[in-house]
Amino acid sequence: MIVLNMGEKKLLYNNWESAGSYQKGLGVTIVPPRIGDFGTFKALLSALCISLPVIMHATQTPSDAIPFTGDGTLEPVTESSQEPIVEPPTENYLLAPFDKVAIRVFDEPELDSAQRITSRGEITLPLLGTVKVAGLSIEQTKDNLERLYVEQKFLRQPAVFVAIEEFSPKRITILGEIGSPSSFELPIGANYVEIEAAIAMAGGFTDLARKSSVRVTRKSEPDGREKVEEVDMDDVLFDDEEGFATTRYRIYPGDILYVPRRFF
What we know:
The chain is of the alpha+beta class. It is built from five helices and 15 strands. A hairpin with a 2-residue loop joins β1 and β2 (9-13). The model is unreliable at 1-36, 47-70 and 77-81 (pLDDT under 50).
């Protein structure tokens, strides 16, 4: 191991090569000599090796150096403090009203379009007119548009590309005997959340919550009439025989959950 001083910290290297061709010796920074000045350089090196360690002035920490404090505690080195940007998954995502989509047709720029999906779940494209896309995945939308161009004899072998430029906000509301009753936005790129995840988002049940009768109000399509269902959370969270949950229940955008109070 090779140690080089850096003020209050030190750098620990695995070998001489990692320390760099200009850094040799305990606590010594070796300055590269000028051409024809090796005699002076050797004398300077000898004097430095027997003198007090010289603080190495460095503008940055080498990538293979491990800084540690005087008590021997290692400190990890990170290349950047910024966290990587994670794109939301779109493979299983189903397009929804108010998503903004971009449609591109290879070698047909006049057919390109970028627009928001209407409340009816439709977009309007050149030649094709109004096309329903809500409820379809990216791949399904692509295949459907290519089929329509061929069936209506506009293009022989179209290559359509579909991308989501902006996800629409999707919110659910949770009320009643819950930690933080409020309206919550679903994670970006999600079409739904499991009911237990929705309960957790709202701070979990209170001590007075009647978990066996959680009411879910949902607007049905296409008439928009409200439908109310009761969910027994014991069936969702526990299974007496196997020890794990077998019942799943999904909460969709626009749903309203109400957790009633128990009186016994």
